[in-house]
Amino acid sequence: MGDILTLDDLRLVAKRRLPRMVFDFIDGGAEDERTLRANREAFERRTFEPRLLSTAAERDQSVTVLGERLATPVLLAPTGLSRLAGPGGETAAAKAAQKRGTVSVISSASSVAVGEVGRSVERPQWFQLYPWGDWELTSALMDRAKAAGVTTLVLTLDVPVTGARERDYRNGMTIPVRINPRTAFDVLSHPAWALKVLTGKRITMANLVGLREGHGSSAASLAQLNLSLLNPSYSWDDVRRVRDYWAGRLVLKGIMGAADARRSVDAGADGVIVSNHGGRQADAIPASLDVLADVAAEIGTEAEILFDGGIRRGTDVVMALALGARAVLVGRPWMYGLAAGGQSGVEKMFDILSTEIDRTLALVGARSIADLDASFVRNRPGTFVSEAAR
Ligand SMILES: Cc1cc2nc3c(=O)[nH]c(=O)nc-3n(C[C@H](O)[C@H](O)[C@H](O)COP(=O)(O)O)c2cc1C
Ligand SMILES: CC(C)CC(=O)C(=O)O
């Protein structure tokens, strides 16, 4: 991995190593992928106003998030079925995060059960829950997370139904996976991946195993169960019910405006994640960066604000922090890291970002994260991204 300089390099290695259907599942977004592209363009449209002669010989990028000290302001976002990207999946990711002094958020749809990840690391992890209609299963999952030592629950609110990831439909990446000459060729032409990933333990939504009496345990039936549990009429009262049940910290994910940020605080959230699910759910909603300052203005003094969507550089991290986030999460980049080099690939991702964050702090003139505020960022109208650059 010596020639990998950037997170985009990691993406290209992942693209070579993974079957197209797996790469596109990770890389893709919903419908026309407008929101997916917008997430990047929002960073490319903004610039810094450097403050000269105001940094220090050593910069400090540590932050405190909901009472936890993190060595770097980057957490791993919850992503389902990570073992598709590489062996170890969520366990490898949690170990990498722990090694770099931060945490991962384990998805409800993770391919390693939360208890197993918890046993493989000392640092307590976070756990993500979907807005399920079935309270018995929801509370059972919270109990499992608590028993696994989870400190912070992330309740994802932007999945009333699944977004239309059209790359997946076209590639046969559906439930069940469509096996035809094209998908078979796709897998067979990536023998190293097939050997490493498909010959290991069966890839399945491990948290759901045994959750529902009498429910089958095949990968397809568990994925189907996950889908069928989604509840389009989930309400703020349901959020309050989770709040009352979960004694730890509660973070609401998918907040895209001041009004929902206010409702989150009213429902008892300790924090929110400004996120559009990496452009995988609603298309034609804004870049998450474009609503961050609004959310910060509304609830910045009452709850902690985290951010995800399109972070690919240290400059992006510093910009999001300057605009009001306490820390950021990355989704696709750690999956690319896992595909490129397992746990060391995820560590590599952290190392690239940390080095870039440190250099950016020095170049914009900040000694620590606490020095950053919106005055470091210029908002430029229009975009610098050409069609060709995409
Ligand atoms: C392959 C994949 C699976 C995901 N699975 C989940 C999930 O299970 N739960 C969830 O809340 N978000 C999920 N997300 C969204 C991420 O948590 C995060 O919001 C998003 O990836 C951030 O954008 P980024 O990929 O540009 O960093 C997933 C994202 C990807 C790419
Ligand atoms: C594995 C899926 C259930 C999760 C996913 O793709 C997502 O939430 O974006």
Automatic annotation (TrEMBL):
Which residues are noted in the entry as FMN-binding?
Answer: 78-80, 107, 128, 130, 156, 253, 275, 308-312, 331-332
Keyword field: Flavoprotein, FMN, Oxidoreductase
Cite the active-site annotation: H277
Domain FMN hydroxy acid dehydrogenase: residue ranges: 1-382
Annotated TM spans: none
Query: Binding residues for glyoxylate, per the UniProt record?
Result: R165, H277, R280
Which PROSITE patterns does the record cross-reference, listed alphabetically?
A: FMN_HYDROXY_ACID_DH_1 (PS00557), FMN_HYDROXY_ACID_DH_2 (PS51349)
Which cofactors, by name? FMN
Q: Which GO terms describe its molecular function?
A: FMN binding; oxidoreductase activity, acting on CH-OH group of donors
Please, which domain of life does this record's source organism belong to?
Bacteria
Tell me the protein family, please: Belongs to the FMN-dependent alpha-hydroxy acid dehydrogenase family.
Q: Identify this protein by name.
A: Alpha-hydroxy-acid oxidizing protein
Task: Write the lineage as a comma-separated list.
Answer: Bacteria, Bacillati, Actinomycetota, Actinomycetes, Micrococcales
